[in-house]
Amino acid sequence: MSPEAWAQIGVTVATAGAGVWAARSARRTPKQERRDDFLAVTEQQGKAIERLERRVELREAEAERQRERISAQDEAIGWLLGRLRQLGTYIRSTGLEPPPPEPMSDRARQYIHHIDA
To answer: Which of 12, 22, 80, 90 has its CA 20 to 30 A from that of 108?
Structure first.
């Protein structure tokens, strides 16, 4: 083989070696892959946490509205019970007897336990 052929082979081997080295250095390392996976998982968890926080806020607002409604209903029931007592007292003061109360359901008795029924 002539010296030019050997030179040609040497240049080809050097070029191939440089190409392999460049390809190897362009590859991502396992550490880089893990870091990117961690970032992706962290981002997904962040979005999931934000969704859960919004759901909790909605539930808290709904619970507050329900507490206000129950409080208003409790006040209305108290007013009605007071009015019934006043009417019973008025009927007795006229010398009559009020009609006997109808039986109360067990569900109602759970909430209206402070009346004479």
So the answer is: 90
> Contact at 8 Å (CB) between 98 and 92?
yes
Work out whether the CA dihedral 38, 39, 42, 48 comes out positive or negative.
negative
- Please state, in angstroms and rounded to a whole number, the distance separating the CA atoms of residues 48 and 44: 6
Give the span between the Cα atoms of 11 and 93, in whole angstroms. Answer: 123
DSSP, residue by residue, 90-114 = HHHHTT--PPPPPPPPHHHHHH--S
Choose among 20, 98, 31: nearest CA to 12: 20
The pTM of this model reads: 0.52
Model confidence pLDDT, tens digit, residues 3-37 = 777 777 777 777 777 666 666 666 666 776 677 77
